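User: Hey, my collaborator sent me this sequence without any context and asked if I could get a structure. I don't really work with proteins. Can you help?
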Amino acid sequence: MKPVLRILNLEDEPNDTDLIKAKLKKDGVAYEMTRVETENDFVAAIRQGGVDLILSDFKLPAFDGLSALSIAKEKCPDIPFIFVSGSIGEEMAIETLKNGATDYVLKENLSRLPSSVRRAMNESEVRTERKRAEGALAASAERLKKALGATVLAIASVVETRDPYTAGHQRRVAHLAGDIATEMAIPSEKIEGIRVAGSIHDLGKISVPAEILSTPRKLTVTEFMLIKIHPQTGYDILKNIEFPWPIAQIVLQHHERMDGSGYPNSLKGEEILLEARILCLADVVEAMASHRPYRPAIGIEAALDEIENNKGTLYDADVADACLRLFREKGFKLEGA
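Assistant: No problem. I've predicted the 3D structure and written it out in structure-token form, which is a compact way to encode the shape of the chain:
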């Protein structure tokens, strides 16, 4: 059984509507048609719903087709809109198509109407299916994003369970790094990657003995060498996970410094990912401002002085300036500091 096409006909001449009906019926188009001729009735019919196709005259006594098209594009943009008129020139016909009309058919050539209607409905069905597929894909992506977020949080909690003195460190670093990136007007998709990397940047510390992580004294040279392995360990764990951002590389590089004095690969300047330069600075600020087993908190002002004094040498100058603006001009507060 053929589906019944629900047509809204904007037409002030009932005889013309009858001609349209006859032509569609002759060509085997199954339809139900409602005729309206005023703007109020046109809008009311659209609001009521149940319309698959709009066939509109171009000129009416108190209403015109372009106004009707504008209303339709605003209130029901997915419904095909075909002009059926005897009073439309070629230039105006082209103008209607530019404004979103699906097609136009001259009343003296109604033989074109059935094929125009079928083509319009086929295109509408394709658009509907595409939107449905896009919606399903977006829903799937959102589920994957939530699963990824939960996985990241689980990974972060593993590190903090072994290193209770730095519990919350990764979360605070992620927050600060994301806000610095926002201050720098970095695209939102990159900012999300920076926050994710910040949340797990110390993952490699799971390879460091817990007694070293929590020792209340200054580390020995050997112990510090073990600590310095953690970016590489984190990279090795993350490198085969297909994140939508270069998370493994960001984690690997978050202790590199602009002058090449960082670790593990002594990278310099632009060799270091911008995301890693941001994370590096946020990590330093949070670490200095927070308590550690081997020392009390140094304080946020001392941390900011460190950044200011070494911007352009240890730290990226643009990143440092953005961080300093956040704290000194915009009142940013580091949680727990």
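In plain terms: Residues 79 and 228 are 62 Å apart (CA to CA). You can pass these tokens on to your collaborator as they are.
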